Amino acid sequence: MSEFTSSFWPWFIGIVSILSLLACFVFLIAVTRGKRPGEEETTGHVWDEDLRELNNPLPGWWRWLFHGTIAFAVVYLVLFPGLGFWSGTKGWSQEEQYRAEVASADATYGPIYARYESMDVETLAQDPEARKIGKRLFLNYCTACHGSDAGGAPGYPNLRDEEWKWGGTPEAIETTIVGGRAGNMVAWEPAVGKQGVAELVQYVLNFTGRASQPELVAAGQQKFEMLCFSCHRLSGKGNPAVGAPDLTNDIWQYGGSEQALTRTISGGRKGMMPAHGEFLGPAKVRLLTAYVYGLSKGS
Amino acid sequence: MTESSKPGNSYFSVHQKVHPRIVHGRFSRLRIAALFLTLGLLFGLPWLRWGDRQAFLHDLPARKFYFFGLVFWPQDLIYLTAVLVVAALALFLFTALAGRVWCGYACPQTVFTQVLVWIERWVEGDRASQIRLRKNGFSLPRTSKLVIRWLLWIAFALFTAFSTLGSFTPIRELGSRILAGSLGPWETFFLAFIVVAILLFAGKMREQVCIYMCPYARFQSAMFDRNTLIVSYDPARGEPRGARGKESAREALKPLGDCVDCTLCVQACPTGIDIRNGLQYQCIACTACIDACDEVMDKVGSPRGLVRYTTLNAMENLRTKILRPRVAAYGLLMAGIIAAVAVSLAHRVPVAFDVLRDRNAPYREARDGRIENVYRLKVLNMEEQARTYLLRASGLPGITVDYEAGDLDVTAGQVRDVPVRLRVAPDDLHEHSNEIELELFAADDAKISVRESARFLGPRPEEHDESDESKGEEHEGD
């Protein structure tokens, strides 16, 4: 029982339930006792001089159905947690039922997945059956962020291209799915000011030959080689160990326009891939890894 | 007024078991033919094959209904509605024209009761010996006959339940599955339910079902009129009734009607009424009394038809009109719906799809600068053969469709999830939201084609230039 609810209500519910049951039983006995088929009794009401309301007994099968419902209620309330304060002799609970259903689903589908658990990702990525299952898993679990086609969305990486912030090897992809990733781009405006951000933006744009104010590039380079190189490296090609993206390949997770880059550098970015290892289990993770790995190989 | 309706007497009466006398004649032959037809359909239909599957099967777990060459999906529920409406109208039409022919000839209650009555008669003898057997209390012959009768009843009920179940689960495996005890919980339940229902309704309750439980018996009077066919005794011809003495004595007595008061019509009645009391709601128009009376009339040398099919108008020597407004209305409605279903079935396209927009982003920019929307298609191949479909988009200039090769190869009866990308050049997008149309068609049969409309979203015109920026904005907080 949670500390936020008082123990008054379970007792209230239990006692009201028991009293209602008793009342039904007593009422049933009272209205059916001593009546035999064939005897006639009226309620005493008479209309239009001779219209009388009869008070015939309930047919026996009908009366016993009522008794049956009361007996059912008693048995039910003993077995299951129907009274607030009584948890039932069967020990039933929603959590238990959920666990049992998951276990029975695992028993049914486990063998199908177990086959793939030991196979390596390169092989699985070639296996059409495994890719089909992987695709269905992806459509179930991954599309909310990465899109049905795994093409990503602004802020969520595209999994079909050759850019891998955290590495594109089977092992790296599996690690990402199992443990999740937390990317963190620092907000630089407090450190370098508006002018500094503008210079950095021009330098970063220059990687792809798009600098709009070439006169700022040199100052930007100076700042980049002082502040940014530790993650993005001097070449700007990034570092999968810390999830720092390649800035030279014209793939931009948060947008590649001048405005978008200004925003990214001045305010920073925080990316979050949740961990799925515990939730999905090793076999499903392996199949998803193979599917995602195959996507980039295929395109 | 009968005795019991007088004040002071009880309205309550204990049910008396009806032992209908079995009769032979024109109408009972017709009734037996109807019985063999309906039971034949019930028992035989599940065994028919269509290709390598059962021809008539409601596959509930797979949500498919097979009817010979047709496969119905839950999406085709409208046809079930149409079938039910047509069945209801047919019931109305036949009731208006011919009264309770359904009750007398085709109702499962009538048919099953008839079979159980035959078994009862075969084991326990005719009506008289059945009554005698009941009177004698418990004895060895009675008990053994009772056991045999119940065993035969149960056997028939089991076979009926088996056949009924056989149109819901493949009947060829059903027998061995019952023996192996590997039926699912619902199959077991319905097997037991049907057996119990047949024994209870057709074995024990019989006419009480028709009189007290059946809703049709109560509302059929609303479809009746003075031109409806009924089974009726002709009092003008029959009364005054009386047994015949010797020919000479008969002449001496006051002239009697044709009814010899043999009560065979009462004994034959499965609902235990006396047809000579006039039209009664208990009468299920089974015509057993007609056959019983005709036989007697033949014997005493009077013309047949003292109890006969007639109408209230005909009884009063008025003209019976067959074509009445209600008959025309029921008939036209029914014909209209049947025609509509036939046309719709002929034009039914056995493929369907739903278009679900991806929710994670309204749109995105592809690397070539074009605006890209992602959808998920749910493609249903409702045929019994695999199909390769193609997808076409229209509604925006230069719109292109892209999906993974092989994704639109859908096997028979499969529902497939297919991610699809549509792309449009930004210069061709003038609105934020654009109506487009997707057409899915079979690669090798242009007639198999369906269309669905969808929306293609792009940047709002004023934000076009800074689309990257605003998209980043929109999703940062997600």
Task: Describe this protein's structure.
The complex is a heterodimer of chains A (299) and B (478). Chain A has 299 residues and is mainly alpha-helical. Chain A has helices at residues 8-32, 60-79, 94-117, 121-126, 128-141, 143-146, 170-179, 189-207, 217-232, 258-267, 277-298; strands at residues 42-47, 51-54, 181-185, 269-273. Chain A is built from eleven helices and four strands. A two-stranded antiparallel sheet of chain A has the order 1-2. A two-stranded antiparallel ribbon of chain A has the order 3-4. In chain A, strand 1 and strand 2 (51-54) form a beta hairpin. The longest helix of chain A is centred in the N-terminal third of the chain and has 25 residues, at 8-32. Chain B has 478 residues and is α+β, with helices and mostly antiparallel strands. Chain B is 43% helix and 19% strand. In chain B, a hairpin with a 2-residue loop joins strand 4 (64-67) and strand 5 (70-72). Chain A binds chain B through residues 37-40, 50, 54, 56, 135-136, 139, 143-156, 161, 250-252, 254-257, 259-260, 263-264, and chain B through 7, 10-12, 14, 358-361, 364, 367, 372, 374-376, 403-404, 417, 419-421, 466-469, 471-472, 474-476, 478.
Descriptive terms for the model:
heterodimer; A: 299 residues; two-stranded antiparallel sheet; two-stranded antiparallel ribbon; B: 478 residues; alpha+beta; four-stranded antiparallel β-sheet; disordered N terminus; disordered C terminus
User: What separation lies between the terminal Cα atoms of chain B?
Assistant: 82 Å
What is Rg of chain A? 35 Å
The main sheet of chain A orders its strands as 1-2
**Overall SS class of chain B:** alpha+beta
Percentage of residues in helical conformation of chain A: 55-70%
The low-pLDDT segments of chain B are: 1-8, 466-478
Radius of gyration of chain B: 34 Å
From the spread of the alpha carbons, the general shape of chain B counts as elongated
What oligomeric state do these chains adopt? heterodimer
